[in-house]
């Protein structure tokens, strides 16, 4: 599903088939969605890697940068950043070989969506939330 976006079940299942999940915008502030998404992955038994430019540790996990993450082709990337930063994140992710991106609600705008449409990545944008999908058990369908 190259260069394809969506919010349907196939895109969600494909994303959750990843071996690990990078959370760009992870925060040590438990009230922020970057922290909530990171915790949701770990609470559901999934491997999560916090990514933040300034933090060093979030929820007891060492923060990494995208360029430090091994096996990008098998890593889903959840993006919880303001749209102004998201454009840079998706460009960097694609250059590094990450192919599955999930923009959480509010991380996208028209420019970001236009850029995504021209890239060779699978992505979810425009509404679906990883927190809702995990709570529904969508991640279990990917491993059936």
TrEMBL record:
Chain ranges of the CoA-binding domain: 15-107
InterPro entries: CoA-bd (IPR003781), NAD(P)-bd_dom_sf (IPR036291)
PANTHER family recorded: COA-BINDING DOMAIN-CONTAINING PROTEIN (PTHR33303:SF2), CYTOPLASMIC PROTEIN-RELATED (PTHR33303)
Protein name: CoA-binding domain protein
Species: Hondaea fermentalgiana
